[in-house]
Amino acid sequence: MNAFFAIITRDIKLALRNGGSTITLLAFFLTIGVIMPIAIGPNKQLLAELAPAIIWVAALLSSLLGLDRLFISDHEDGTLLGLQHAQISLTAITFAKLIAHWLITALPLILATPVLAVMLFMDMPTFLATILALLLGTPALVTLGALGASVAVTLKRGGIIAPILIMPLTMPVLIFGISTTNSLAGPDASNSALLFLSAFSLLSVAFIPFAIALALRTAEE
Amino acid sequence: MSVQAKTPNWFSKLAHPGVFLSWSQHWIMPLAVLTLITFVIGLYYAFFNSPADYQMGETVRIMYIHVPNAWLSQMVYGLMAVSAIGSLVWRHPLADVAMKAAAPLGAAFTALALFTGSLWGRPTWGTFWEWDGRMTSTLVLFLMYIGLVALWQTFNDQSRGARIIAIFTLVGAINIPIIKFSVEWWNTLHQPSIIKADGLSMPPSIATPLVIMMLAFTLLFFTLHMIAMRSEIQRRRANNLERQHINQTMGISQ
Amino acid sequence: MIDLGPHAVYIVSAYAGVAIVTFGLIAWVLLNSKKQQSRLADLDARGVKRRSQG
User: Fold this and answer.
1) Cβ–Cβ under 8 Å, residues A164 and B142
2) Is the CB of residue A147 less than 8 Å from the CB of residue A130?
3) Could you say which of A33, A70, B8, B208 would form a disulfide bridge with B12 (CB–CB 3.0 to 4.6 Å)?
4) Chain A: residue whose CA lies nearest to B89
5) Is the CB of C18 inside 8 Å of chain B's CB atoms?
6) Is residue B39 predicted with pLDDT exceeding 80?
7) How many Cα atoms sit within 13 Å of B14 on the Cβ side?
8) What pTM, to 2 d.p., does this model score?
9) What total of structural domains would you count in chain A?
10) Does C contact A via 3+ CB–CB distances below 8 Å?
């Protein structure tokens, strides 16, 4: 278990040391939130209506942006090769790295959401529902993104192919995520979207790390 | 080409790339002829020997090319998923080849399913595109095919690439029903469902050309797939020989 | 030719599109097959043999 937490703290420390990437990610996320109103026009009602969709698209694109640095540096300096002989399995290591990656990339985005909520004229219930949906949906986004990163880890031009591969798979997250926000904050509240989103997230987080570990092991052979 | 320690069973004998090359060459011509005959019969039925539908009118004839392509779009992915298991579990080179050869063919058939669906939709629904559950999930499937074709292009090491692509193909195969479900759920949320082609209550006069056309397109796929697999094996062999030749001439012996 | 009714243009273009793509696919597969065979024949002519063939 110690090794598990050691990997999480290691990845977070590494990310904090060159903290530029988290800031870039935040800037990207907020930029999308800024260009959308400019593109749509300052129509208060329209923006409020589109706000959950804008935030989800911004979150999806930002999480795809941060993908390439997930495994590449560990692959290039040989860390991944070394980790295969660690006491804990590669799947557990993958899981630890996913937690770290979520803390580094997804959590700052969720914390920055209030800024976008203000700019997009979100009301309180919609905002709270969006935060809840993001908390439930981002683990699936991070896991799927990591799958793309692990598939592309040996590729020189892997940065652009991983998002293309992953985008179709993230469709359920997007659909159930936005529906969660709309249904929880809407007039006829129903929680089926919330349940589907949680189920999808749970299944992704439970099973995809095995696929990621297998892809990483193959890549290191 | 090392001699295997234990005697291989009939399947691995047939599936050895070299053996595959020699037996498959006798299959291509008969398959191609059979495909052609089936197409001729199918097209004859589709245009001259089937009535216009009482609801859809003459546009029902688009169905005879739309449904076969839609069926192939899913069957080809299924074939890739089965090959992916073969590639991961037995590390069989022929499974890699089958997976790689199927991807561009599947992409083309999926594109045709979308194209004919959109041309069918214009007279029936009034628009070329409708964000209906079936069309949207076919579009998502098309994007996945494109991703897989692009992925094959980027890997230099084909046998390692094959296993990584197999992993992704399988995750995709598990995800396709979920995506389909989510898209259909999303669709019912936003609009009441529109026309659903009823497969069960189809009169035999329409079912006959449909079944023959489905058979024809399926045969076409298997013919093309077999040729493409042979080309891929030959491509790898030629690549190996070229590399070996260069190494020899430069004095690098292996 | 039979009368395809008011939507003939959609039916004809659907069949034409499928025909174009299908023939394109067949041509692509066959050309690729020819290309690989000629590469192998070329290597064979230059005397590059597989190791197993000694």
Assistant:
1) no
2) no
3) B8
4) A214
5) yes
6) yes
7) 6
8) 0.88
9) 1
10) no
